[in-house]
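Let's sit down with a protein and look at its sequence and fold side by side. Please make up or recall a protein chain and show it to me in full. Label the sequence line and the structure token line clearly, so we can match residues to local backbone shapes. Go ahead whenever you are ready, and we will take it from there.
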Amino acid sequence: MPGRLNRRVREALTGLHQRDRHRRRRVIEPIGPGLARVDGQACVNFCSNDYLGLAQDPRLQVTCGAAGSGASALVTGYSPAHAELEAALANWLGRERVLLFPSGFSANVGCLDALLRRGDQAVCDALNHASLIDGVRLSGATKAIYPHVDVDAARAQLEAAPEAVSAIITDSVFSMDGDVAPLESLAALAHSRDALFYVDDAHGLGVLGDDGAGVAARYDQDRIPLLVGTLGKSLGAAGAFVAGPADLIDYLENRARTQIYSTACPPVAAQAALSALHIARVEPWRRERVRALISHLHHALAAAGLPVPASRTAIQPIVLGTDASALRASRDLQQRGYLVTAIRPPTVPEGSARLRITLTAAHSKAQVSGLVEALADALLEARVA
């Protein structure tokens, strides 16, 4: 490595260690529904986005198909499984067409880069996912960031550039706080200003709404023209998609670079997602269990004298403040048999490092109660120390 680059890398790594910001991948081995082995220890896994508990369902694992697509979808990578999945998703969401992408990140980056250009205006929630931020950056559009869920501020930013082609861009459920965007007000605002309303429903799909259709259960294609979702969270598979009007999807199929120049997701993943979609629709008890566990967690936290998150979704943050305190609590919980990741800046704002608890249909009330008891003990020991 060149000397100057080597010094830059070493200085950056040293700084990350000094600020408790260094991260490392760990081998996480699934060992049963809601369970994982990490660093040789069996734990209840409370940090997966597998909200419906389908990732280890044997009905997904017995699907067959080619291991790889071999090319992009526009060359030879579009299989019958892909086509069937797109049709099933469109039917589920009440959209004219669906276009698959290899990942949620590639979907957002590719779509926003294709839709927006220099001189356009992208009005974005301050806590949008990194893929939404990077998609706007790549497009060259002017990015106007409004304070989190502040509709009046979004309106003011649209009014500041009335002649520009504009888009309001937001997550539906925010991945670190678990709160929900004011979609009704934002949709009305976008309609009144002739702006595109672009919603990423990665953390709502499968869990929220009638039939688990997420925000699409309440908002039709006219209210939310472009809806992005992932297949690797509630549906337990891999990949992502964008859903919307046929003409708009046709345009993205021809212009989104992450679609054109990426190998399509494997057919076996598409078949697994098809199986998961069927299960999610015919087994509503999975969504009902997640809702029951949210209520149980809140009651248990209150009874233990611990802060109760405002979130009503599967994402339940316990904000501890400093990076060191979040890391210590995460380590202590793992020693007690509970896997909960410490989330630190830049993923969350400075001073808001946290434990991000996620509840899934694979969990039981007893496991949630055990987690709260372990968390109370860990925080008490930290205060005493």
Summary: The mean pLDDT is 94. The two ends are 43 Å apart (CA to CA). The first helix runs from residue 3 to 18.
